[in-house]
Amino acid sequence: MDMQKNQILEIWVTGGIHAMEPVSVQPVSYMDYWQLIQVTHQDGQRSRHLFGRADNEGRVCSDIVAFDLKTVTATTKSGRLYKVMGPPGRDADAVWIYDQWATHNKFVRVQYLTSALHRMRRMRGYTSWM
What we know:
- This protein has helices at 2-14, 92-105, 114-123, and strands spanning 28-40, 46-54, 57-60, 64-68, 73-76, 81-84, 109-112.
- The chain is an alpha+beta fold.
- The longest helix is centred in the last third of the chain and has 14 residues, at 92-105.
- It is globular.
- Residues 1-14 have low confidence and may be disordered.
């Protein structure tokens, strides 16, 4: 019985935050159960990020530098493309990763922009999330 507890503990401990594959290895990532946010940093700078489930794990993307409303694809500062798959949602692992990331970065303000994105897409005639 103690061995099973240790094995279960090891499964939980081995997860966590880690570096992503370089953009040269993984130029495109597909994300579902996602949200769009804008954060205000302590120096007043703002950046936008997607967080959700990508490649079977929670993820927060680096700063978004471009966003294609039609294809719902974000281009990040690192050069990676994040293609949104399906409607927005919530994933427990993604929320945990987001919480760790936000705590580490000590943002002054966080705004959820998912609803605003949805309104912008509808105004332009895009009705599905792909």
